[in-house]
Design goal:
By secondary structure, this protein is an alpha/beta fold. The protein contains 6 helices and 10 strands, in the order αβααβαββαβαβββββ. Helix 1 (10-31) packs parallel to helix 3 and helix 4 (94-109) runs parallel beside helix 5. 31% of the residues are buried.
């Protein structure tokens, strides 16, 4: 994706707008009916900014309207009935959750097409709490009745949040794996209670990596259940599970 000369001049805004539209047109027409929901704008939030948006290259040229351009293009070119999402991480954190509500509320107030939100949920074994995850789903549902929500990138590290140095190697303590398994069970108990507000859960990867390094730490396996709404302790098995998605932007 090209940002032109990187300025917000009218001429470059026209170039970048056309680039976004062409990219999204090509993506959604290529996949057509094979994709029922698009992560149109991925990870747009930044709670440190007054408008709650990350001020990246698209923003530098178009301001917040780059999101409008992307969602409108996706609606124009995607088959009827295709759902359009924005997707972000750490939405259980109060500041990011407040920003998610603010951004979605602004889009809806201005008539920009958005059908749902994705909660990534790359979790650590000690954070966030199940209650915080539930609160995120309930908060979005309360503010935007009927909006679609999905957990889009669920995984759980066997390490604590912020711990980028510990490494179990191939010897993850059985007690840690058991704790992880029971936490997944608690997750899905909670997800079942959110039926009607939460439409899908997708697992992500099975490894954690040390930020700033290519070295992989010991596997943080995901848990496979027979179906999204049927996850019981007797059925917990370790399985590699990779997310398949086709983000239009991000």
């Amino acid at each position: 994706m090209h940002f032109g000369d990187g300025t917000n001049s009218p001429a470059n805004q026209a170039v970048v707008t056309a680039n976004i539209q062409e990219h999204i047109q090509n993506e959604v027409l290529h996949f057509g009916n094979k994709v029922y929901v698009w992560d149109v704008v991925n990870e747009p939030l930044d709670p440190s900014q007054p408008d709650c948006l990350a001020h990246g290259p698209f923003y530098q040229v178009l301001g917040k309207s780059y999101i409008d351009v992307a969602l409108k293009a996706a609606r124009q070119y995607a088959p009827p009935g295709t759902l359009l999402f924005i997707n972000d991480y750490s939405t259980a954190d109060p500041n990011r959750l407040a920003c998610l509500v603010q951004v979605v509320g602004d889009l809806r107030a201005r008539g920009i097409p958005i059908d749902g939100v994705g909660h990534e949920m790359h979790n650590a074994i000690n954070y966030p709490s199940v209650d915080a995850m539930v609160n995120a789903i309930n908060t979005v549902a309360a503010n935007f009745p009927g909006i679609d929500q999905q957990v889009t990138e669920l995984d759980m590290s066997v390490y604590n949040a912020g711990d980028n140095t510990s490494n179990y190697g191939n010897n993850i303590p059985p007690s840690v794996l058991a704790e992880q398994g029971w936490l997944y069970k608690r997750y899905f108990d909670a997800f079942r209670q959110l039926s009607g507000k939460l439409q899908a859960v997708t697992f992500w990867e099975w490894r954690t990596t040390i930020p700033g390094s290519t070295a992989s730490r010991s596997p943080a396996p995901t848990i496979h259940c027979p179906s999204i709404w049927d996850c019981r302790p007797s059925q917990l098995t370790v399985e590699l599970s990779i997310q398949h998605s086709y983000p239009a932007m991000g």
